[in-house]
């Protein structure tokens, strides 16, 4: 019974109770109780900590990142240079193209009115978000 009050078990109990209340009260989305309990959903993230009780996996991951920090920094640097270079090349290729611009106005404006628009396209493309608001039209 002493183990029941250990931090991990109490945390699990709170997460289970919050999840159960969410499921039972969420049938009627108009009730205040369901919306109030939704704020407790972030506690479900704490279940991840329960998977690795002693933190061995996290220590291993931290040591690997620390040991290979130079390679990781070099990779980020090369990626940043590629982003800047490719965004510049796309801006040069697209700046004089006619079509619908980033603000949705049709006319003589290109998608890439400035280098900042090209950088926006590069960041959104590299992070695979792909909003679709800016895209190259030279190859169409």
From TrEMBL:
Keywords assigned by UniProt, alphabetized: Membrane, Transmembrane, Transmembrane helix
InterPro entries: Ion_trans_dom, K_chnl_volt-dep_KCNQ
Residues annotated as domain Ion transport: 10-136
Pfam families linked to this entry: Ion_trans
Membrane association type: Multi-pass membrane protein
Gene Ontology cellular-component annotations: voltage-gated potassium channel complex
Localization per Swiss-Prot or TrEMBL: Membrane
Chain ranges passing through the membrane: 72-93
MF (Gene Ontology): voltage-gated potassium channel activity
Entry protein name: Ion transport domain-containing protein
UniProt lineage: Eukaryota, Metazoa, Spiralia, Gnathifera, Rotifera
